[in-house]
């Protein structure tokens, strides 16, 4: 019996044991509410199209999930979190604060409905995650024992694997391995994930995350001896990635203190913003960032976090933040042999996937380090927030990457310093924002914009961005098209309007240009992005939206006979209709039809479409919930691929991409075994009608099905 | 007599329609107000409607006139001058307007005579006749053409109105030697009063030899000041504009930003010559 089956049995045994114990099935609202889930799903689908496949979105969504469990007091100071989470816009926040000032504390969350600008959709998202508390100021912390006793603990374990045999796990001979050491993975195909979290009244949070990706080493004894001899560092038993954090807030003048892994989000993200951001989201008002300062990190993105210590001290209206971070970085090295000084190494490239599955991936692990330190001085009054941020960073080894014309301005010698100033100016009907930043080499970047509410139900947002071609910043995640914040100019305008009760129109236009070359784009290029969405809310049980988007950019003409790669435009248009209904109590349906049309000069057009049906069965008073999807997809090629959000086990988010012809189905069960124990199981299968081989390289599956399986347990105490 | 005139005119249009110009620009659209809103104008009703959708001038309460100047990309050769005057009467509203684009060696001139009236309190229609004169260089003969146009505007409810416009349905030609023709242009759009202060509009334009263009804009009024913004899709232009009313006089300025080509500026002023009650 292989290890996989043993694990399944162990999981099931625990499950059965739990089922046998009498359960007090109490409805605890800890999963995302339907509307909030929908909202996030939409944002994620946009994001997935522009980010790499392995991105872990937990980081971005952690706060939403967190506050679904720890409610925000609308009468307290924490209410500003709602703005940072984009659940309220600046104007709604302004109205809420005004209401509180005028009528005193809100007696119930339902009182929010009386405030101007709070429509049904906003309330439906908000009510599950807020509470009307006494708005009391921060209390003194009790002794450590009381904290430990009263704090809440949560352990989450997840197991995942693809059931089909993939090339990288197929048995092979030692001689074949010796000849091609990277033709097999070092570890097994399972993914293990364990997360522990402690929380005391949102004031003290601690966490530990451990993870092993498929193909990574878990047990050293499993590694093939031929491969083991090739590893440059001695492998160890256990997980591949560990992350821990301790986060404390509001103790005297210390507004926040993070030890371990954390994130920094300042200003508009131009100077310093670690981790992911929603980028160009479907919400025009969201072009304005809301820097939350220091946040704990519990993410699985192994290359996008800060490790060390960070603190924010608040004195009257001033905030002073300081941080130091030092973390390992995966890199491939180049040796410089010097007969006198011995061997020296230089970095030839940095890997951000966080995967260490093959010999070469393993040998790149933690090959160098990234150190950053700096701080921010902020001032905040009722109408104005300004800040000055500066940091310096360096890599453990010097850089010697391959220089191509496209990355000529991006790469630098390994050490850098960046400084920038940002502002936000809030008035009842208009909010202005901006940030300007300068890197050590003199590269400049800036963004400025506003969000205005010329009528109560119309919001207009505009922003101009200009990121210089020589602007260099490894910790920048500003609004834009590019993955890196440089080489981009653009003008964005968007509007959200409630045309009539139940009807909402969202539209934006973005014109952008890249003055310098980009990867696979050997010339200056430009593009346009237009988005149009009409939302209709029929009643509490049914809503729908229709969306059209067209986006054009340019890339090299893909004709092998061309010696000069000139730029040709390509356009991707998509049309989507999505419907949510609840025909019976306890049953929710979701339907979607989507059409994608891709056109590139000199190539035939490519068309893709998908259609799916979701059934969600959530019987009242029963401790379980079932989610089922059946989807058909048919896309001519990768160019007309489609991205779809899938319901997943709590804290996991999948937005897989589909092309070719086939079906995708999944079934997920959630079982609530008592107050403290939850159990999830999910099985999904993609079947291709027109393929005998799925994937490429080590991920190749010989067959036309790919089945993924997940189990998750959560224990709260 | 009247019928004979129409037959003659149609015959003339058909004959002219055998020939004519490549990139003919001046089929209408003038005024700095519409230029601040992405060029969406088919559902607007002001004195510049004379050039944008003649039905709009039927909404005027008094004799009005306007002049505007537009410059593209800061090149003096690419400027456009225009002027309009419209006079309401008991028979309907009559208007006369012109635009002139270009410089000494290449210019497009456009004179329009329009008539519009309210057919119903919520519905108005307009008709325009255009004389077009194009001069290219010293060596070539000037070219001319006559084209007509039709437009309607309707108030659907308190908030929503629509406009539709058709230019040169007879496909008038503009050259005696080639088959160049004036473009046919169709526009359809909606206007929406979100509040008394905020007006939004959107339209689609199809010219016979171009891809369809979609335009949308917003106008916000703050006392006697106006702020405008808009976008056009094809060509892709972002617009910003401002306006001010001072008694019976108003001025507007606008800027259009094209990614590659640069900035188009337009300024205009309008006056009401006599207030009818």
List the helices and strands and how they pair.
The complex is a heterodimer of chains A (717) and B (277).
Chain A: H1 3-20, H2 34-50, H3 58-69, E1 72-73, H4 81-84, H5 90-103, H6 120-126, E2 130-131, H7 144-150, E3 152-162, H8 174-179, E4 190-200, E5 204-212, H9 225-228, E6 241-251, E7 254-265, E8 293-296, E9 306-315, E10 318-338, E11 342-351, H10 359-364, E12 368-380, E13 384-395, E14 415-426, E15 430-439, E16 444-455, E17 458-467, E18 488-500, E19 503-514, E20 525-539, E21 542-556, E22 567-584, E23 587-600, E24 606-617, E25 624-635, E26 642-643, E27 657-658, E28 660-673, E29 677-688, E30 693-694, E31 701-702, E32 705-716
Parallel strand pairs in A: 1-2
Antiparallel strand pairs in A: 3-4, 3-32, 4-5, 5-6, 6-7, 7-8, 7-9, 9-10, 10-11, 10-12, 12-13, 13-14, 14-15, 15-16, 16-17, 17-18, 18-19, 19-20, 20-21, 21-22, 22-23, 23-24, 24-25, 25-28, 26-27, 28-29, 29-32, 30-31
Chain B: H1 2-16, H2 32-35, H3 49-52, E1 63-72, E2 79-89, E3 92-103, E4 106-120, E5 123-136, E6 143-155, E7 160-167, E8 185-193, E9 198-207, E10 213-222, E11 225-233, E12 236-246, E13 249-258, E14 262-274
Antiparallel strand pairs in B: 1-2, 1-14, 2-3, 3-4, 4-5, 5-6, 6-7, 7-8, 8-9, 9-10, 10-11, 11-12, 12-13, 13-14
